[in-house]
Amino acid sequence: MAERPPPRPEDISVVVQGPVTGRPDAPHEERHTLRALESVRRHLPGAEIVLSTWAGSDVSGLPFDRLVESDDPGTFRCDADSRPGFQAFYNANRQIVSSRNGLRQAARPYAMKLRSDMVLSGTGFLRFFGRYPVRAAEWRVLEERVVTADWFSRSVRRRVAYPFHPSDWFHFGLRGDVLRLWDIPLADEEMVRWYDHHPRPEGDADWWLTHRYTVEQHNWLAFLRGYGPVPFAHKTDAGPEARRLSELTIANNLVVAEVQALNIEFLKYPMQLAHWAALYTHGEWQRLYRDCCDPAFRPAPDARLAWKRGYDRWLAGAHLALLSPRSSPALRALSAGAESRFPGAFRAAKRAYVSGLAALGRRPGS
């Protein structure tokens, strides 16, 4: 099959969605939304830029073609931790409203959904669109696969499995397909505060949070359940059928690729090693594509996957104890005890761990 040419910039609408970050008088490096818009102009000359943000935002000096202003739907608290000052928020509805309303106003045949705190560093994402043409009959929902990022597309083949968890930070594909991903029901407070009134499943590592599904899971499930039933009780419900459906729907409707290859960068959130290790690699997604869609396909070698599996098997426990002690009450007590008894050694060990391994998490494969 002949490879078709990639979409032209003039055929693409880029929806930059979210709050306007960075005041007009702030230094340029702090003006994330301005930098996002400038990066689209630089790398996709001729593309339509739609800025979809909140009514009343200061958009002075921002380069866009179309402005979509929505009322802020607000957020829900989702923290169950009793520590003073600790708060967590479930922002799914803000993302849904700004993405959906912006995509509805997009006028070109192809669309990108880009957060307002992300920038393009090139057009690598274009080479993944249309590259994997074979589809399975079951759960073929989108007209074409939509390209998405490895951040935060969690694999179900790690020590802690989160099915139905493809990234929702970046999408590129046919405008109608990208809109389908975001033309979904809003999250309700009952789901966000689920564990206020329901028993937690055994082994739930997120004991300080109340939501039934992560934001990524809510968005993907809300999309899928518009086309058929998806039995999935809670965020770590990782039985055989949940794993199968999770991998099938992701393989058959998305392409997952590393942010470096897509040429997108996040300005707000650095990648932590524990998070990076939990994510699909593009090579791992290629194996899903082979197993679910195209048995004749030959995946490329995948060194990143070997690193991630090694970390998951040999280092994840030490990481949780040293850097994320809130993951369990026992580890929290152990870490707090070690820090109080040996503060100097504890800080030195933590610095050594971070300096030795965090670079791998932030720049995989380097």
Report on this model:
The chain has two domains: 9-303, Spore Coat Polysaccharide Biosynthesis Protein SpsA, Chain A (Alpha-Beta Complex), CATH 3.90.550; 315-366, no CATH class. α2 packs antiparallel against α3 (175-182), α6 packs across α9 and α12 crosses α13. The model is unreliable at 357-366 (pLDDT under 50). It has 366 residues and is α/β, with parallel strands linked by helices. 37% of the residues lie in helices and 13% in strands. It has helices at 32-43, 92-105, 175-182, 189-192, 215-224, 240-253, 259-262, 273-277, 282-292, 303-314, 316-323, 329-341, 343-362; strands spanning 12-17, 48-54, 66-70, 76-77, 89-90, 110-115, 118-120, 146-149, 170-174, 254-257, 264-266. It has 13 helices and eleven strands. β1 (12-17), α1 and β2 form a beta-alpha-beta unit. Strands 3-2-1-6-9-8-10 form a seven-stranded mixed β-sheet, with helices on both faces. It comes from Longimicrobium terrae. InterPro entries: WavE.
Label this structure with key terms.
366 residues; alpha/beta; Spore Coat Polysaccharide Biosynthesis Protein SpsA, Chain A; seven-stranded mixed sheet; 13 helices; WavE
The strands making up the biggest β-sheet line up spatially as: 3-2-1-6-9-8-10
> Could you say what the CATH architecture of the largest domain is?
Alpha-Beta Complex
Write the CATH fold name of the largest domain: Spore Coat Polysaccharide Biosynthesis Protein SpsA, Chain A
Helical proportion? Answer: 25-40%
Number of E-state strands? 11
Pfam families: WavE
InterPro entries: WavE
Biased composition (Basic and acidic residues): 1-11
Protein name: WavE lipopolysaccharide synthesis
